[in-house]
Specification:
The structure is a homotetramer of 353-residue chains. Chain A is an alpha/beta fold. The first copy, chain A, folds into two domains: 146 residues, NAD(P)-binding Rossmann-like Domain (Rossmann fold), CATH 3.40.50.720; 163 residues, Dihydrodipicolinate Reductase, domain 2. In chain A, 36% of the residues lie in helices and 23% in strands. A seven-stranded mixed sheet of chain A has the order 12-11-7-10-9-8-15. A six-stranded parallel sheet of chain A has the order 3-2-1-4-5-6, with helices on both faces. The first copy, chain A, has a two-stranded antiparallel sheet with strand order 13-14. At the A-C interface, helix 6, strand 12 and strand 13 of A face helix 6, strand 12 and strand 13 of C. Strand 12 of chain B pairs antiparallel with strand 13 of chain D. Chains A, B, C, D: It catalyses: myo-inositol + NAD(+) = scyllo-inosose + NADH + H(+). Chains A, B, C, D: InterPro entries: Gfo-Idh-MocA_inositol_DH (IPR050424), Gfo/Idh/MocA-like_OxRdtase_C (IPR004104), Gfo/Idh/MocA-like_OxRdtase_N (IPR000683), MI/DCI_dehydrogenase (IPR023794), NAD(P)-bd_dom_sf (IPR036291). Chains A, B, C, D: Pfam families: GFO_IDH_MocA (PF01408), GFO_IDH_MocA_C (PF02894). Chains A, B, C, D: This is Inositol 2-dehydrogenase.
C-alpha cells in the first residue's frame, strides 16, 4: 500500500482541519472520500482536494477505495460509525468522545477485544505534544520521584454560548482526564467540581471557571482549573509535584519583548492550532503509518471508554456539588467515609469591623 | 520618644530573629527587656545586646522601661500576654496565632474595640513583601478585573516531625489564610482539605501534601497546595485569576545559570529568611514607627481572630474530609446543599486492559 | 507532477538528514537518485529507500528521473554542481555555502539572473524557524520601532578539532550573517572579530569564543558571541534592540523543573536537530512545493553570495584583528576614519595594590 | 560612639536620597551637618532632619560634630573634598567619580597609602546588590569555571540632554567598569567604543546606544551595551560566560501577568531606586558600621582611581573610534598588533538585486 486511502466523516472545523493536514502535511495518505451531514459542505471540501462525496457515512466506511476512517462527526453518531469500522475491520481515528455514554463505549471495548487486534485510536493529541512527551518521560524515568499531585490549568480566550458547565467537562476537561491517565498511568476514581464566582462573560447558569478535582486509584490528587472565557489566550499548563521535585510545562516564553510602557513579556499562544498544531500532525502521521500495518499508535478504545466514564462522573459532580465516583469496569472504588454532621455555631455575637 | 524600648517575650528562633533585626537593622528601636521560659536562654540573648532579663512575662510587659511588646512566645501563652498588653495600654506585635482558640481571640477583639484604639498588630509579614504588595496593588487598581480564583503553592524543603496535618494548617496554611483575606478583601467562609498520597518523607498519619480549598464570602475559590517536605526549597507562589487577566508571584528567577550538564535554571530560595527577610524588616520598622504614635501599621486583632477561626475550620476539615464552615462573628454562612445519595453501579462486568 | 523526483548529492550527516526528511516527513517528494564521493555510502542510503545510485554528480543532476537537486556535498564542489543545475534548468536547494569564494558566487548570481528565473535556494533554515519568523514579523510590523542593535549568541556544546577560528566564521557565524540580513533587510558592510581568552577545551591557536561585530549599510551594530565548545548545550539567542522596545528569542523555557538540590530550571536544547528540526522540515516542504512550480521559496543566490562575501571579510578580520570591509557588488563602502596614533603614557609611577 | 555623626556634602538628588536613608533606614547614624553650593537647598534639607548648615564644605568636614563624611557633590570638587577628609583623618564615602582626572585620583591613592589605613570608600553600590553578590559568589566558587566573556546591558528609560556620549561613559558605563573589575578580579587594559545608529530620541551628536568593549589584563572580553533613552525602563543585565557554564542576572521576572490582549509579562524596574535601593541601604549601613571602626567596607581609593582611568580611556575611544589603552600605574600594556593595510576591491561589477 503506497498511500493510505482515508474517508473523513464530518468536515466541520476539526474535520476540515484534518483534511487540510492529510492533504498538505502528512506523507503517505490520501483523502479519497468525504462524508458530511450537509452534502454541500462535503462537496466543497471534496472538490478542493479531488475526493469523492459519499453521503451515507456507513457506505463511506465500507467504500472499496477506503482503507481507513477518520471520524470527526458529532459525538452522538460516533457509536454507530465506530462500530461500522470494527465490522469492516478498518482502522479508525476517532475524535473524542469515543461515544457519548459509558455503556456503548464499554461495548466497543469488548467488541474490539474479541477481534484480537486494535483498530480504534482516539484523538487525544496531547500525547503527541513534545512538552507533554518530555514531562511524561521525566516522570517515567523517575526524575520527579513518586508523583503526588498534579495541577492543570486549561484556559481558552473565548467560546460560544453553548459551552455550559457540562459541555466544559465533556469537551475541555476531557483533555486533562486523558493527560492525568497518560502522565500517572492509572485510572481516575472520583471527580469533584467546585464552582466559584463566574466571570461576567459567562451566560447565566454557566460556572466558568470551575475547579475540578480528580482522585486516582492510588489516591493521587489532580486539580484542573477550567476557564474558557478568559479573554486572554490559550493557556494550557500542567505541573506535576513529586517526591523528588516538580515540573511544569506550558510556560509559553519563546519570544520575550520589553516594551516602551515599561513592561516585559510576550504573546501567549492564541489558540489550539498554534499550541497543538504540531501534535496533531504527529498524531496523524503516526496513525497513518500504523494504519497501513492495520494497527494503531496512540490512545485506544479503553482510553476512550475511560474518558467517557470520568466525564460522566464529572457531569454528575457539576450537578451534585460533591465528589462522584467513576464507574469503570474492573476498577475497585474506595470505601466512602461516613458523612460528618454539619454543626454550625448557633449564635455568633458581635459584628465584623 | 527617640527610641522605642521593646520587651521581647520568647527568644526561640523567631524571637531571636526579631531581636537581631531590632538591634542591627531597625532604626529607632531598642530591645531593653528579654523574657523567656528558659532563663538561661533569655540571659544569653540579653547579655549579647545589653538588655535586662525579666523572668515573668507579665512583669516584663509592665516594666517601666518598656514602651512596646513583641510576642514571640509559644501560641498557648499569647492569650494571657496580649491581654496584659491591652491592660497596660502598650502596643504589641504578636506573632501568629493571636490565640489558640476562636473564643479567646474574639474576646480580645472586643476588648481592644472597647479601648477605642488599635494596639495589637499580628505578625502576618507577607503583607509587607514587595511582591505581595505589587500583586495586591494590581488587584486593587483593577488590573486583573474581578478576581475569580486564587491558586497558592506553599512548599518547604523540610520540617520537624511534629508538623503533622493539623500543625500544617495552623502554622503554614495560616499564611495563605491571611494572604487570601489581604488580596481579596473579604472573609473566608468554608474550608475543605483534600488529602492525597503522602510523601514517603512524612511520618505515618501525616498528610503531606494536602490540597486546601477556601471559599470566600462572595463565593470565590482559593486553592492552597501545602507541602512541607519537598526536599527542594522554599517555594511560595500565588496566582490570581481575574476576569481581565491573571498574575503570578514567587517565580524566583533572578540568577539564571546554564550548566555543563545541558540544563538551565537557578537556585530556589532556600528558606523563609531569604524569601521574606526583607518583609520582616519592613514589618518591624513600620510597627516601631507606628508604636511610637501608640498605634499599629499592619494586620490587627480582627485579622488575627479571623485567621484563628479559619484554621479552626481547617483542622476540623482535616479530620472530617469534607467542607467545614468558618465560625466568624457577623459573617453569614451559605445555605448548605442537600447531600446527594451515593449511588454506585452494582455490577461492572469485564476487566481493565 | 505528483511527486518531485529529487537527486541528493552528498549523504554525509546533513545529506542523510535531508534524505530521511524527504522520505518520512515531506509530502509530494521522492528521492530517486543518490550521489556521493563514497559509492558504498551512497549505496547504503539509496538501498534503504529504494533509490538509484549515480556516481557522477553531474550525471545525477542531468538524470531523466530527476526534477530537482538537493546539494549537501562539501562546499568545495558546490560551484560546479550549482552551475550544472543552472545549465540543466533544474531547481536546486544548496546547503551553505553557495560557493567557497566571492568571485564564483558572483558569477552564479549573474548567470541565474540571465536565465530570468530563480532556480537556486540556499539552505539558511533559520528563516523558517517559528521564533525567527515571529521576531522578523515583530520588526517588520514596527513593533520595536527602528532597530538599532542586534545581539546574537551562538553556542554549541562541542565540535570536532577542525573547527578552528576561520571555520567557526564560515560554518557557524554564517548563520548570524543571514539572520542579520533577514531581520534588518540590509547588507553587512564590515566585520570585526575580537578574540578574548580561549576555553581550555579549544585546540591551540583556535580562538573560541570570539566576539564578532557587524556593521550594516545604515550603520547598525550587530554583535555575535560565537562559542562552540561550551560543554553546555545548543544555545541560539537573538535580541533586537529598537527605538520602541527590545525582543529576544531562544530562551528555551518550555519544561521547567524544580529539583531536590534546591535549584530550578530545565533542559537546554541539546543540538540543532532539536532546535531547528521543525525549521528544516518547513524549509524542505516549501522548497519542494515551489520547485514543482519551477521556482524557489526562501533565500536565493544573492543571499548565498552575500553570505560568502561577509564570511570572507570575517576570515580576514580573524587574521588582521581589525575591522574589515565586505566586498559586495553595488554596495558602497563607508569612508574610513583616519587612524589615530597610539600614544601611551611613558612612565607610570607606583604599584597597584 | 553610639551614633556616627555624618556631614553630607551636596544634597542634590543623590545627596538627598542618602540623607533620607541615613535618617529613616540606617541604624547607628545621624546626619549632623549639611553643606551645599546652594545654601537655601542645604537649609531646607537640614531643617527637615534637625541638622546644621555649614556653608563651606571644608569647614563641614572639619566640624567638631562630624565623625565621617558623605560626598555627593559634583565630581569637579571631589578632589579637594576627599583630600580634606584625608587631612582630617575622617572616613569618607565618596560618590563616583573619585576625582575627574587620572592624575589627581592617583595622588589620592598614594596619599591614603601613606596614612597606613583606608579611609576612602567609593560609591559603587552594585557590589552590595544581592544579585551581583550571588553572581560574584558563583564565579569565585568556581561554579562557571574560568570566566571567558561578560556581556552587560545598561538601559535607562530617559535622561536629560546633557547625557552626551562622553557623559554616558563617565556616568553610566562607569558602573560596568566597576562590575567588570569586581566580578573578574582584574584590571581593564583597553576600551573600544563602537557607535551605531542613534535613537531619534538622542540629541544630535550623541551616540545612543553605543557598544563598549573592554579587554582585561588576562585578555577577557567584556561587552557593554549602553542605551540611556530606551523609553522602556531601567534594565541592568549581566551575563558571565565561563568554561563550565554561564549565568545571567537582572531578568526582572517577579510579578508575571497574563493580559486580555493575549500577552504575558510584567513590569520592568522603572528606575535605579527600585532596582538598587536595597543595595544603597546595605552599602550605607555597612559603611556606617565600618566608619565607626575608622575603616571602610567596600570599594576603596584604588577602585575609584581605576574607574577614572578606564573612563578616561573610554572617552578617548568615543572620540577616536578605535581601541584605547588604559593608563594605570603598574599595569603592563599588551603589545599592539601591526595595523593591517586597508585594501578594498577596486571595481565591483554589477548591481545588487
Amino acid at each position: 500500500m503506497t498511500e493510505l486511502r482515508i474517508a473523513v466523516l464530518g468536515v466541520g472545523m476539526m474535520g476540515a482541519f484534518h483534511v487540510d493536514a492529510l492533504t498538505k502535511r502528512i506523507r503517505g495518505a490520501k483523502v479519497t472520500v468525504i462524508s458530511d451531514y450537509f452534502p454541500e459542505k462535503a462537496k466543497e471540501v471534496a472538490d478542493a482536494i479531488g475526493a469523492r462525496v459519499v453521503d451515507d457515512p456507513i457506505e463511506a466506511i465500507n467504500d472499496a477505495e477506503v482503507d481507513a476512517v477518520l471520524i470527526a462527526s458529532p459525538g452522538a453518531v460516533h457509536d454507530v460509525q465506530v462500530n461500522a469500522c470494527l465490522d469492516a475491520g478498518k482502522p479508525v481515528l476517532c475524535e473524542k468522545p469515543l461515544t457519548t455514554d459509558i455503556a456503548s463505549s464499554r461495548v466497543i471495548v469488548e467488541k474490539e477485544k474479541s477481534l484480537g487486534k486494535e483498530l480504534i485510536q482516539v484523538g487525544f493529541m496531547r500525547r503527541f505534544d513534545p512538552e507533554y512527551v518530555a514531562l511524561h518521560q521525566l516522570i517515567v524515568s523517575g526524575g520527579l520521584g513518586n508523583p503526588l499531585m498534579v495541577h492543570c490549568t486549561h484556559r481558552n480566550p473565548a467560546v460560544p454560548d453553548h459551552f455550559n458547565s457540562e459541555f466544559m467537562i465533556r469537551d475541555s476537561v476531557v483533555h486533562e482526564v486523558d493527560v492525568t491517565r497518560f502522565l500517572l498511568g492509572e485510572e481516575i476514581v472520583s471527580v469533584q467540581v467546585i464552582k466559584g464566582v463566574a466571570t461576567s462573560a459567562a451566560p447565566a447558569g454557566t460556572n466558568d471557571p470551575m475547579l475540578v478535582v480528580f482522585e486516582t486509584e492510588s489516591g493521587r490528587i489532580v486539580t484542573d482549573e477550567i476557564y474558557v472565557r478568559t479573554g486572554v489566550a490559550y493557556e494550557v499548563r500542567t505541573e506535576v509535584v513529586g517526591e523528588q521535585g516538580s515540573a511544569t510545562i506550558g510556560l509559553d516564553q519563546n519570544l520575550q519583548v520589553k516594551r516602551t510602557d515599561g513592561s516585559w513579556g510576550g504573546q501567549i499562544t492564541p489558540g489550539f492550532v498554534e499550541r497543538f498544531g504540531q501534535a496533531y500532525d504527529i498524531e496523524l502521521q503516526r496513525w497513518v503509518d500504523a494504519a497501513k500495518q492495520g494497527t494503531i499508535d496512540g490512545p485506544g478504545a479503553w482510553d476512550g471508554y475511560a474518558a467517557v466514564a470520568v466525564c460522566e462522573a464529572g457531569v454528575k459532580a457539576v450537578r451534585s456539588g460533591r465528589k462522584e465516583y467513576v464507574q469503570l469496569a474492573g476498577i475497585a472504588l474506595p470505601v466512602e467515609e461516613e458523612p460528618i454532621p454539619d454543626i454550625r455555631a448557633p449564635d455568633l455575637i458581635g459584628d465584623r469591623p
